[in-house]
UniProtKB/TrEMBL annotation:
Listed GO CC annotations: plasma membrane
Protein name in the entry: Inner membrane metabolite transport protein YgcS
PANTHER family with a match to the protein in the record: PLASTIDIC GLUCOSE TRANSPORTER 4
Lineage, uppermost ranks: Bacteria, Bacillati, Actinomycetota, Actinomycetes, Kitasatosporales
Membrane topology of the entry: Multi-pass membrane protein
Pfam families reported in the protein's UniProt record: Sugar_tr
Single GO molecular function: carbohydrate:proton symporter activity
Transmembrane regions listed in the UniProt entry: 20-43, 55-76, 83-103, 109-130, 142-165, 250-272, 292-312, 324-356, 406-430
Presence of keyword Metal-binding: no
Region (Disordered): 438-476
Protein source organism: Streptomyces jeddahensis
Chain intervals with Basic and acidic residues compositional bias: 455-469
Length: 476
């Protein structure tokens, strides 16, 4: 049986465990980025932090994510998914523990930067590992579940912050930071023992290890001769490198993945800020109750992702992302009416945007993993994450300035314009990858030829140039 068995395997306990373990990284991202916002209230008063100190502490993790995604994606393609999969979680545990005992601003800034690097590294590590293990027909949905974990983590942080603040007041901020260490340790334990990606092992010529990994995970024995043929095919072509992401077709795919990701999260960060203002109309935006309001915002975005999870595998990636961006523009344009709008209209627009944004959200990590070959898959995911964080950091920094100088209406129209750019990028460059093997989706245009009957029997698939050339890894 070929590695086709991996692509077409029924979902089992291993797939479910791997999905939840991989989702731990985005969950911790949402949790750690959000819990610091709650903890800063107590930190500021106890440590006499200035506004500049708070800004540095808040921004350090975003800068770390940029660096971590850009650098450690390439390291993951070189050293393997399995090793980095646990190392980055160990860094999260250590960094969170040390944060509990920090007393100086520079210590918090350094630790938040390190935590951000580990989070940024985990995105390409975990998503590439999951993409290379899950069956084709479930890949879009399972990768989409990972992004849901971000919102759940953010909501959990606000709830935990609310409970701790109610019990022990603002002085409980060290307990808030300690909670991140506990959660990181739990997820680290979940990840121990996960087998290496068979695609990565074959790409490196480690066919015997690939056979053992498949046996351990799926309890299926793959004839080593077929893996040897796949390995020989892999080694017979030039392996793609970091610079290939910025050449030819891969440049277009890199720009597509990074730009649509950035255009999706930049206005989203703006609405995360605008959300508490809306909830303030109902008395939920002040004091500790504001933490519950922020948790509710995260839940609304989770609800928006749920229908998209089904649609990406049922109707396809391209129609979902193109139509979602088009529909996302509408509520932002309406919100351009500013404070003159009735609160019911504002809430409706907010909910509509959250619903429509589910499409691009669940594809943030699907497309980078599908459009690039094994040798640069994690690298591409890391670059896309880094590009997106430029928008996140800029949105976080510029939003208060825009609200103060331009007003909420103009700020929302700017968000609509950014979203419209996301639609243009998707309309021009989004490819359809539903139901296809990773070898097929990552192949360069025109590099595949129809397989003959004899080749189908051998399970071989030919790819040229910088893409994979795999045997037994595609569908016959």
């Amino acid at each position: 049986m070929s590695i086709r068995a991996v692509d077409e395997a029924p979902l089992n306990k291993f797939h479910r465990k791997l999905t939840w373990a991989c989702a731990g990284g985005p969950f911790l991202d949402g949790y750690l980025l959000s819990i610091i916002g709650v903890a800063l209230v107590g930190m500021s008063s106890e440590l006499n932090l200035t506004t500049g100190d708070e800004s540095l502490i808040g921004a350090a993790a975003l800068v770390g994510i940029f660096v971590g995604g850009l650098f450690f994606g390439a390291v993951t393609d070189k050293l393997g998914r399995e090793a980095m999969y646990t190392i980055d979680l160990a860094v999260l545990v250590a960094g969170s523990v040390l944060s509990v005992f920090a007393t100086e601003t520079w210590q918090f800034v350094v630790l938040r930067f390190v935590l951000g690097m580990a989070i940024g590294a985990d995105y390409p590590i975990a998503t590439s590992l999951l993409a290379e293990w899950v069956p084709n027909k479930h890949r879009g949905r399972l990768l989409g579940i990972l992004i849901l974990a971000w919102y759940i983590g953010a909501a959990a942080a606000y709830v935990v912050g609310y409970v701790l603040a109610e019990m022990w007041g603002t002085g409980s901020w060290r307990w808030m930071l300690a909670s991140g260490a506990v959660l990181s340790a739990v997820i680290l334990l979940m990840r121990i023992g996960t087998p290496e990606s068979p695609l990565w092992l074959v790409n490196k010529g480690r066919t015997a290890d690939a056979q053992k990994a498949i046996k351990k995970a799926l309890d299926r024995t793959i004839p080593v001769e077929e893996l040897l043929a796949a390995s020989a095919a892999e080694q017979s072509v030039e392996q793609s490198r970091f610079r290939d992401l910025f050449q030819g077709t891969y440049l277009r795919r890199t720009l597509f993945c990074g730009l649509f990701y950035m255009c999706q999260i930049t206005p989203m960060f703006a609405l995360y800020t605008f959300g508490p203002t809306i909830l303030g109309s109902f008395g939920l935006g002040e004091g500790n109750a504001g933490n519950l309001g922020s948790a509710l915002i995260s839940v609304v975005f989770v609800l928006g992702c749920i229908p998209a999870l089904r649609l990406v595998d049922k109707v396809g990636r391209r129609p979902v992302i193109v139509w979602s961006f088009a529909l996302m523009v509408i509520p932002l344009v309406v919100l351009g009416g500013g404070t003159a709008l009735p609160i019911a209209v504002v809430i409706t627009c907010f909910c509509a945007y959250a619903l429509f944004s589910g499409g691009p959200t669940v594809l943030e990590w699907t497309y980078p993993n599908e459009l690039f070959p094994t040798s640069i898959r994690a690298t591409a995911g890391g670059v896309a994450t880094s590009i997106s964080r430029i928008g996140a950091a800029a949105g976080t920094y510029l939003l208060p300035i825009s609200l103060d100088r331009l007003g909420i209406g103009t700020t929302m129209l700017i968000g609509a314009g950014i979203t419209a750019v996301g639609w243009l990028v998707s309309f021009a460059w989004a490819e359809e990858t539903r139901g296809r093997t990773l070898a097929e989706t990552s192949a360069l245009p025109g590099s595949e030829r129809p397989a003959s009957a004899g080749e189908e029997d051998r399970g071989s698939l030919r790819e040229s140039g910088h893409s994979l050339r795999e045997s037994g890894l595609g569908r016959s």
